[in-house]
Fold:
Amino acid sequence: MLVNEKIAIEHGLKSDEYKKICKLLKRTPNITELGIFSAMWNEHCSYKSSRIHLKKLHTKGKKVIQGPGENAGVIDIEDGDAIVFKIESHNHPSFIEPYQGAATGVGGIMRDVFTMGARPIANLNSIHFGSTQNKKTKNLLRGVVHGIGGYGNCMGVPTIAGQTSFDRSYNGNILVNAMTLGLVKKDKIFYSKAAGLNKPVIYVGSKTGRDGIHGASMASASFDEKIEEKKPTVQVGDPFTEKLLLEACLELMSGDSIIAIQDMGAAGLTSSSIEMASKGNLGIEINLNKVPCRETKMTPYEIMLSESQERMLIVLESGKEQIAKKIFDKWNLDFAVIGKTTNTKNIELFFDNEQVANIPVNTLVENSPMYDRKWKKSKLPKKNKINKTIFKSLKIKDTLKKILSSPNVCSKEWIWQQYDHTVMGDTIQKPGGDSGVVRVHKTDKAIAATVDSSATYCWAHPLTGGKQVVCETWRNLISVGAKPIAVTNCLNFGSPEKEENMGEFVECVQGISEACKYLDYPVVSGNVSFYNETKDIGIKPTPTIGGVGLIKDYKKMITMDFKEIDNIILVIGKTEGHIDQSLLSRIILNENNGPPPEVNLFNEKNNGLTLLNLIEKNFIKSAHDVSLGGIITAISKMCIKGDKGIQIKKPKFLINEIEYFFAEDQGRYLIEINPKDLKEVSKILDKNSVHYDEIGKIIDKEMIIDQKTKLTIDELKSYNTNWLKSYMV
Amino acid sequence: MKSSVITFPGSNCDRDMDVALTKFGFKNKMVWHNDQELPKSDLIVLPGGFSYGDYLRCGSMASKSKIMNSVINFAKSGGLVMGICNGFQILVEAGLVPGVLLRNKYLQFICKNVHVKVDNKENTFFKNLDKKVLEFHIAHNEGNYFCTNDQLKEIEDNNQIAIYYCDQNGNTNDQINPNGSIKNIAGIFNKEKNVLGMMPHPERMIDESLSGEDGSIFFKNLLNNIK
Structure:
């Protein structure tokens, strides 16, 4: 087929991008070459709109072994151990085909982690759906949850935490972000940089089929009414084969045969081969007739662009082919020597004894387009003036009932009970807590992980929202007694070609970077998902942050359930009564305007580190960070989990009780301490200038607020646990 | 005491079982599904997971694997065999215990703590157990035990029901039945009571930091009974 500009545009390339390709090649590309360019130059693979801004992220730190740019980030957790982790989006495919889309999202991120030599030890996910009134929401939710479970459960990796939200802006574009953590010895980490000439290039895993062709291009465009036609671009997952691939790769990695290894994810064989060559500053030669195919008559174009799952590309030490082959035979996986490294610095493809592509690697990578797109700065919205009489008309009990049973606050048990969260025998904090926690097998250490996003805050003011979501994960880790180490980010936005969306992206990234820098909590990996929009309606900006922290002695882990009657509850951090953009404001007052709560990074860091110090000294019996729904929502959850009540006395502040209990001021935690420790704890908090209020004491089975409002724990439980179950029936 | 855990390619609770058995004093060996011979063992365990992907009926392919001939012979000669979760499914498919395991009633994977009532203590697995109700953990998609009325009568006449799903006080009823199993059956023996298949995972309940510790009670008791 002759290539022209029209065909290039059908491949998602822009007119000037096509011209650039012809100029770089000094000729017209053939169809296979055009396919390769379109796969490498699309937004999903090239980060052409985001690269310029991602450079601003804070990515360095003492504990960082590998920052962004590899298959996943790596952090040091001492004693020669390291954690490999990353989050990735699979939004577009999941909307088209929720089960397979979500399943292969989980499969893809696990491959990213074990490609680096790490055994996956925990999965997390952040999933966002449209309004609960939207007719598609229920089936999408069901399909996504089944897909995540279907893949992760079969792999035998526990899913330990997650986040689910509902918002109208996701009606036409759901978000599925999957995160995996793996454990590896520091001196056994594998990278994707090829090295050495004439080294065999090995293909292992599943056979290549026609599924997923153009998947990455699909993920780089908006949706329209023809979306159903895109189903064939969704990959089909086979978790059993991935489990075999995992075990086979780890077995091979225990020896010294591998020079470089790269999973075939987005843009399959194309991006994996080119990335390895590019990083090694080498050329690569592939005989496409050697690629194991499961369908007949596949063309070079199809072989190169297939996104069939569960495949890996390996550059092997010469002479190690037989050792490697034996291992893959044992696990019943395909193994083929398909090419070699060369000094041409070109990617050269052969098929039926003919050269079918010959492209300089640098034109695909370094010379790929990079755009400094126009973006619009957001102003901080003006504060709403809420009439105080409205607050007086609200009853705490009714308001709390509505909040606890609202879709974004209610218990997500229906979801996480479908995920195996206890396999591997090291899960010491299950989903439903502030962070999931798994032990580092056969050690005293444990790893805490959490995933969060606050699209509403980001939408109201991207810069503040970006900071807030980083801080939220930081608090989630501190609340379980973990020292936060690093984050991974999944940046979900609308079209970068619109100034507003691009502005949201730029400012969220800036907010993330500022917070990460201040908290010494660097970004080590992540991905960007643009074009989350259908028929011109985009999602709220949703940067998702996955935070990872270390607990040195797992016996010191903290949970949020109230422990003992008569213990005292303190609120750490100051409550100013910020109601704008709070859940109260949105679902009770029906007010969507105003600024998000302010983020004070000094307070965040100071409050968090002081709490860690208190945990270290064994003063803290339970802890929970205050977020969506304010203090009273957080307390309710502690009551429900601990099956205990609380007698609350609101501190004498200028703000009224509705403001006090439902405000979403940042940097706050609830902690439970023994009365005998109050003096010592107060001393430490005062010494560190941490604001705190004593708010009540634990009693049996009842929540009593200022002797006026009474709720039983069973009432709280039924508000919180029933909504999702009955919605999904 | 010597134990062997069979590893099928898609087993994923084999390591957990190894950890548990070793912790409570078994000398455990891992055995590859493609092997022919079993090492000398006092107990053989078929662990949980997705043996061969389970795209066909769960456990059906595994029941035909090379090592299973030896496992079947071992069981028939009176050796102790225990199948957990996918291992239970394999035992059913191999015909070592009666019945079948259907998809869960609500068509969902379920991962949570459950209580089980131990009814029959006249066997090596539960003899001398000083608790009647144990808290175990389940994680499965196909644990809905089913058999014909005739089979059920035979099973009951022979005291082959090992454990029932129940509440914390030992009451069995529909509400606490997690997967729709007939009679709340969570585990079952062969006629001779040397083969036990059960859906719950005792190996996930072996220290206080995990979901519970009743697995420890089970394993300690088992070891003492074999000694």
About this structure: The two ends of chain B are 7 Å apart (CA to CA). Chain B touches chain A through 30 residues (CB under 8 Å).
